[in-house]
Fold this sequence. Notes:
This protein is mainly α. It is 67% helix and 11% strand.
Amino acid sequence: MMLSEQAQDGVFQALGHATRRRILDLLKTMPGATVNDVSKYFDVSRIMVMKHLGVLEAADLIVSRKVGRVRQLYLNAVPLQMIHDRWATDYAEFWAGRVMDLKYQLEGLAVRKSDAAGSSDQPEQQP
């Protein structure tokens, strides 16, 4: 399953801000943290943290669960894995192919250089 272009845009937009990336890191280590828990780590207002949380939730990077009057937050790493699969895996295969091409070219060059050096090392034969 792949993310739609619109969903990918939302994930990249959410990841484009350092505060939101830090929030994801916090939720990775503190599953079930509340908004107040998260707000303690930032020098911005709680409302600003809520806006960042809204962007992350819209990108489906966090999910929340209401328990009584408390809203618990959890990281949803599935979109990150899908982005990784789509971009990093594809480009890793691209670069692996390019590196193999370079390896073969360098090996061919080394063989040709060795052959050329070997032929010039041979003493000339007298008729």
